[in-house]
Amino acid sequence: MDEKDRGAGGRGIDGALVPQEQLHVALVGPVFGAGQALDASHFYIVVPDGLGRGGSTKPSDGLRGHFPKYGYGDVVAAQHLLITKGLGIDHLRLVLGVSMGGMQTWMWAENYPDMIDAAMPIACQPIEVSGRNLMFRHILTQAIRNDPDWNGGDYKSPPRHWLYTAPLWQMMLESPVHLQSQGPTRKAAIALYDKLVQNATTSYDANDFLYWVESSWDYDPQKNLGKITAPLYAVNFADDAINPADLDLTEKLVKSIPTARFVLIPESDQTSGHLTLSQAAIWKPYLEELLKTPAPKRVQQ
What we know:
The protein contains ten helices and six strands. By secondary structure, the chain is an alpha/beta fold.
């Protein structure tokens, strides 16, 4: 099977409100463009939408609060079925993901170790969602569940009360430096907050958001890290508030995996907290390095 036939699995950005034009320039071009590490004319690229959001089936399609509860395990299993049964691909050169997709990349590396040559989880940690990461998510989901118009998910018109907490998501995604530059005065900061609330009214359906954020309930790759055999680069950003570097948990756990390397990209005027994941030029050198790493030898069946 030549490289054109091998898949490079892609994942979506977890909640980042990045304009499509900017996303194409900053993320797609430097990675999938001509002559780049994952040149789309050379590799077969698979970029699945996240279950429960985007163009995928989701609560707002009609089931609303009766939509089946799903977790990351279901999402990864569905991706695997898409790859193997749907597209007939039995081997992946690389599985790469950012944020939520990075978390699912950890699961791919554990669940299907003989199917992939390399893995690159970006902007995430190989531990269950806990601490501040869980608390800020729980604030948002509890705001939805306690919105007087939510009605157990069977609302007739979109709930609006919970949206006043929605800017918390962007606060966690952005770096303090970038937020300060966008709101350098009291007036500007309040205007930024109001803008984020307004954006949320058109960007989020309450049920879709609730299911999506809570779908990490079954994510806990730490106990299965020993199953990883493929070369793996775990890349995090020093100014990422969702995956704070001062916890140093990811670095310690990665050291327990013989084939893995941890990379912490320092804060600079080019980084923007969690959203640095969309700046592919910053982490692309590590992708190129990973792809040069020999794939593990497989036992012929």
